[in-house]
Amino acid sequence: MRSSARRGRTPVLAIATAFALAATLMACSRALKQTVATPGAPPSIASLWEEPRDLATRNLFHGPGGDALMPGDARFEFVARDITGHSPGFDVKDAKGVEWSVKLGPEAQSEVATSRILWAMGFHQPPTYYLATWTMTGTESGTQTAGRFRPELPDHKVIGDWSWYENPFVGTREFGGLIVANLLLTNWDWKTSNNKIYRFKSSTSPPQRYVVRDLGASLGKTKPSRLLWILPIPVRGFGQGSRNDIDDFESQGFITRADEGRVEFDFHSIYGSVVDHVHPSSVRWAAEWLDRLSDAQWDDAFRAAGYSPDVRARFIKKIKSKIAEGRAVS
Question: Which burial class, exposed, middle or buried, applies to 319 when counting CB atoms under 10 A from its CB (0-12, 13-18, 19+)?
């Protein structure tokens, strides 16, 4: 009976292995494609990136929302518990009636800092703020741990998701630069559900903006694992790497090879086929924009996320060494 049971499981195991192998091969060979999210003319590159003409004076402490949107009161009313994603969170409302999405845990810091840096380069980002402590009232109440706060604003709304594999900007220098910036900051969670398309109700131009929004899986280290390929897609992200870990971030490399029009990166991920399409010109482009930030701006980006001075200095030193690598690519 024991032997018969083993024989009965063998075909099932073989079939499962075959399907896993087929999925792996499909993922590895997947090509990037240009697509248009909505009918009509393709969006301009401004929907993804706008030249930061004020780069030298951009306030990386307050970020894209400025000080006007920064929470002035650390008391919020409970609306709902957010059970999606890796980190726990809440939906809350402030005294002015503004609703906020709150993310707790280590991702709160890394998301705010990474968002500031992408915005500094000219990539669209929603307002985000970091509160070290805050109080919640209502159904669930009490003093809460540090969190990332993102407001729900009436003049724009999310109308859909977009994929790293299929989007209107594939093949452009700017899209390549976005990939490079995420590699440099070791953001490894590239699920389609993390990328949002915003539509603005006002006359703001461009009316649609493509945003890499959930950036918490950054500032750590990627971890190679063959097991990722046989796991269901929704749970693959849990084994790809660390987040908000200065020791890991310092140990992660950046560029491993650059020659003959090709760049290879120290990046272990199920999204490797996206990275394979990066051209050297995009590496230099991204590095040159980042190199224009002042020491004070770098410090502000990490100070906004609540990092201590010594940890800020370590992150910035490592990032600058990666920028130097990027600028040296020919």
Answer: buried
